[in-house]
Amino acid sequence: MSIELNQNEAVIKRANAGLQSVSGSVPIQNGDLQLTDQRLILKVFHQDRQQQVIEVHLSSIAHLEKGWTKILGIIPIMHNALIVHRHDASTLNLSVAQVDDWLNAIDEQAAQFI
To answer: pLDDT tens per residue, the chain (114 residues)?
Structure first.
């Protein structure tokens, strides 16, 4: 499953990322994270070879925070969690290398929708 971009949409940043449970546990699914000038997109690869695309439009992001990846949801092991809080009160918890760079890049792109 390829990620289709909208007309005039450009990829800004791409990396491997892990989708975490709400408690911030070690990634439960790995995937390809892309930041475009319109969306944050995670293409997740399931164990049964199925793929899922999770999209967050940048205008729906209320705020971002840096957090911990944890073992068993309680023991912090890496400060590499990217927590995306949406206006609808839902969250998307990811683990990604160079999380500070991701926070800055998302903030920069989302600023156009404020």
So the answer is: 467 888 999 999 999 999 887 655 656 788 999 999 999 999 988 777 778 899 999 999 999 999 998 887 788 999 999 999 999 999 999 999 999 999 999 999 999 987
> Which structural domain range is residue 25 located in?
11-113
Q: Which of 73, 64, 72 is nearest to 96 (CA)?
A: 64
* Cβ atoms 61, 84 nearer than 8 A: yes
**Domain-located, residue 51:** yes
> Are 96 and 102 spatial neighbours (Cβ–Cβ below 8 Å)?
yes
Distances (CA, A) of 95 to 1, 8, 35, 104: 22, 28, 14, 15
Tell me the CB-side half-sphere exposure of residue 19, using CA atoms within 13 A: 19
* DSSP-based three-state secondary structure for 34: strand
